[in-house]
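Exercise 3.2. Students should predict the tertiary structure of the chain below and write it as structure tokens, then compare their answer with the key that follows.

Predict this chain's 3D structure.
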Amino acid sequence: MRQWKTLSEDLDELERTLYFALEPERRRLRPELIDVLNNAQGEQLILETWVRVLSYRYSPNPLSSAGSLKAYGGRFNAGGDLEPGTLDPWPALYMAEDFETAFREKFQMRSDAQTEGLRPHELALGPQGSHVTVAVKGRLTRVFDMTSIAALEPLARVLQRVKMPARARQLRKKLQIPTHALTMVQTGKQLHNAVLKHNWRVLPVQFDLPAQSQIVAELIRAAGFEAVLYQSTMGPGKCLAVFPDRLLETSFIELSDHPPHVETITRLDDSTADELAGWDLLPPRSRSR
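Answer key:
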């Protein structure tokens, strides 16, 4: 138990060193990071029958991103439970290009899968209950394409100037972590893997620290992109994380069908973004505008 406690403390110190010791470097390079992102050509997307799978309790407001601000947030947005002084929260509306991908993103397994007779929603880590599938359509004007490693190369060329702190190298050696398993970003492919291949929940859940994907998403959002397009890690299709408060006048997401509730806001655009973002869930000081 003593050895386990020591290793746990060392691992905690390693992760905190990697975040807080590197943060001054990221801030120093921030103008350059934003510049290379601004120089990236944003993709225009026409959405036809994209899908959101959400808990039934949220069905009156299917275009609300308020849920993304809870706990630690999502892969590409920061929630309210991250350690103060790291990232201020911001909302994102998540959707997928087909039902199967949306289902797997929510329940983390195939829609037709069973394990010892249990269905996906019964195995999901969360309260049991009904869920609804909502079809959406729309247009986005400036989307960052995370499916393209080439789009990440300019960002990686700036980040490769950030060196691993000496204390982090000492802890890596002490914890016997192979060098290839813990290294600084040098290429677009490494950055892509850090954002999409790794389990983003580890850092927020175990250490209250932002995930690599959340750090990168904050830069993308600051550069004025409306959304991040990325390949699902669970399903066959692509996903979108839309930043409601960054939507341009020409962009919108709307329901494909008539809603059952007359009060439902059926269109997310620059005029309804604030109402659908969920900012009221956060203390005023923690809102990332």
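Discussion points: Strands lie at 43-55, 73-74, 77-78, 93-96, 131-145, 227-231, 238-242, 252-255, 267-268. The radius of gyration is 20 Å.
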